[in-house]
Q: What sequence folds into this?
């Protein structure tokens, strides 16, 4: 929960026993997985699935290099976002409000809300289409049910219970790994394309690269992971912001590193399996245009069989149920932080009406767009492109925040993370400029 209605009283030093509990590392590797794993899994939402499917179908294995390149970059920027939340004790929006002009805050938060709402619409529509193909019936009604269910779960379940639900939903992504393993893939050809990619300078190629970057390195993921670190901090009575509890820093920063490296690795592994699957099936059979994730699943059926079709389709539904709450939640955290509203998924509806109002509103507006003439196919792809464009100024602000002692105290990010973060920002900026130059 973040609120500035009253100044917080000074926090007394922890007694030795409590300090020992706070410093104790999580047991085992799995115990260290949390915000990073959920963030990485949410990255492979139906919008991302459609983008990776289009890339594989249209360019074969020639886009694999983008996922190799983005992995260390997304690890860097997500780890930095997580550290800002855990070290400062506040989400990104609150930190931006405190250290940057109001116009910049409102511009970034407004663009984030726009992009997330479009993304929710695209994801919910894809879930409805996938459910309709598997179960029969009207896609719009499945979409409406998915949107309402996502909103209800966020409002009704307390944070700790909700996080457990999200962790289980990450298993849905294994469907794409299994699908890829059922195919006989030309690994030498894939390796050659990854090391020596067939680059091209044209509108379709560059726009697809930006779409992949935008769906892999997305602004809503920065806000979400930082806010989840704050939620975990508030949920632990023995924990404090690291800049005021240096004795906890070593274990917590190590946990963030393991969590983020694992979560982003899982994310890009799944993305690569989707790309390889569609390249080896759809692209190899001359199907080079994929409008949605559901269309990719349908096109798989006559080529790879009913089993691959069912796995691909169920994965769309599972990842959508994971991603929609993250999209709506990240927008709510951002707006609530900007407006100084109470914000925490651990609070009941009566204690944070405005925060939950944003979650419900963004989810229902996105769901309602499925019943309009908005083309979900175009929304899927262009929401990823929009995320790529918005990501650049957001990353610049994140990097400046993480390097300021007024935000991070003595725990400003390391030189290695600083280099990686600015490299990620630069790569994304170059990709966006290249896209606009080819459009022109």
A:
């Amino acid at each position: 929960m973040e609120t500035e209605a009253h100044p917080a009283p000074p926090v007394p030093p922890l007694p030795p026993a409590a300090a020992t509990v706070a410093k104790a590392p999580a047991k085992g590797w799995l115990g260290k997985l949390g915000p990073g794993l959920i963030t990485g899994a949410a990255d492979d939402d139906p919008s991302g699935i459609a983008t990776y499917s289009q890339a594989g179908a249209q360019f074969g294995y020639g886009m694999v290099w983008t996922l190799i390149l983005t992995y260390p970059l997304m690890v860097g920027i997500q780890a930095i976002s997580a550290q800002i939340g855990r070290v400062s004790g506040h989400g990104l929006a609150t930190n931006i409000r405190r250290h940057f002009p109001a116009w910049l805050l409102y511009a970034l938060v407004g663009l984030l809300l726009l992009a997330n709402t479009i993304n929710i619409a695209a994801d919910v529509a894809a879930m409805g289409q996938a459910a309709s193909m598997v179960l029969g019936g009207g896609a719009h009604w499945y979409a409406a049910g998915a949107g309402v269910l996502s909103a209800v779960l966020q409002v009704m379940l307390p944070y700790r219970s909700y996080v457990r639900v999200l962790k289980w939903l990450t298993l849905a992504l294994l469907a794409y790994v299994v699908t890829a393993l059922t195919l006989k893939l030309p690994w030498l050809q894939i390796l050659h394309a990854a090391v020596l990619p067939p680059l091209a300078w044209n509108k379709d190629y560059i726009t697809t690269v930006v779409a992949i970057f935008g769906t892999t390195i997305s602004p809503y993921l920065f806000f979400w992971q930082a806010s989840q670190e704050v939620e975990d901090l508030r949920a632990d009575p023995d924990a404090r912001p690291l800049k005021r509890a240096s004795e906890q820093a070593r274990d917590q920063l190590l946990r963030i590193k393991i969590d983020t490296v694992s979560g982003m690795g899982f994310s890009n592994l799944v993305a690569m399996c989707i790309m390889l699957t569609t390249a080896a099936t759809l692209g190899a059979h001359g199907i080079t245009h994929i409008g949605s994730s559901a269309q990719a699943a349908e096109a798989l059926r006559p080529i790879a069989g009913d089993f691959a079709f069912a796995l691909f389709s169920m994965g769309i539904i599972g990842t959508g149920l994971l991603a929609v709450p993250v999209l709506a939640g990240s927008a709510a955290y951002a707006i609530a932080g900007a407006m100084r509203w109470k914000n925490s998924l651990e609070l009941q509806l009566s204690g944070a009406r405005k925060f939950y109002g944003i979650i419900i509103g963004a989810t229902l507006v996105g769901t309602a767009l499925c019943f309009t003439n908005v083309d979900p196919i175009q929304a899927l792809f262009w929401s990823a492109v929009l995320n790529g464009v918005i990501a650049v100024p957001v990353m610049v602000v994140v990097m400046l925040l993480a390097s300021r002692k007024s935000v991070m105290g003595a725990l400003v990010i390391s030189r290695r993370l600083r280099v990686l973060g600015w490299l990620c920002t630069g790569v994304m900026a170059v990709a966006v400029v290249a896209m606009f130059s080819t459009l022109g």
User: Anything to note?
Assistant: Residues 102-135 form the longest helix (34 residues). The CA atoms of residues 130 and 313 lie 5 Å apart.
